[in-house]
């Protein structure tokens, strides 16, 4: 039954209650058990988890009933606005794919890497980390490739990217360990691997500080999210966002580049992790701020 049909049915029930009340005043022979109880019927609708009149999603109380399949982070909640601490139950965790880490959470040359990359072969099965519901199934040619986002009952969201094939559908309920996709090398990827993210209210956290990937289990049964420890990287992100790059031209050297950009050779070497004797190539980009 659709939402419209159920809404119409509920109105019909309420209308019947009113008519029955008037009829009862007029004719006392109508027995009391024949009158439907509108309060109980409405409560049944609210309590029926299979009913789409008021659809339930995991952790709706935390996410303020926001549920969309179009944006990875539709919540736009600043880290400073998050609760001081939130305890998350990790007892149901299943490793999404067994394998070693090939790239860690952290800054890259021009951007920030918000996940942990785990080695796999194209076609390897990828499973859900926790029980939950599929919120996004999408394709991002210049980024994630084929990817899936799951909202979990414990309040976390996980991202699985660079997949070769997705095996679940939007709004599908999954258990921890259910196969959701096959690993691959789609999108912005240079080799087969799983890009895996853990997020809370849209904000990424370092999976390797929560999960022991060597053993395939959480470090602790419960994880305490705090602003200081879980989102320690914010200063790095701000610095990376403020970064400025200069493209090397013919005749440039570190001294000229430093003078042209109001900085020093030592500062350029520190920012780019190079020595003052490094040979510069025309067309190469160098960070100047």
UniProtKB/TrEMBL annotation:
InterPro entries: Cell_wall_metabolism_enzyme, Dup_hybrid_motif, LysM, LysM_dom_sf, M23ase_b-sheet_dom
Domain LysM: 244-288
Gene Ontology MF terms in the entry: metalloendopeptidase activity
Classification via PANTHER family: MUREIN HYDROLASE ACTIVATOR ENVC, PEPTIDASE-RELATED
The name this protein goes by in its record: LysM domain-containing protein
Organism: bioreactor metagenome
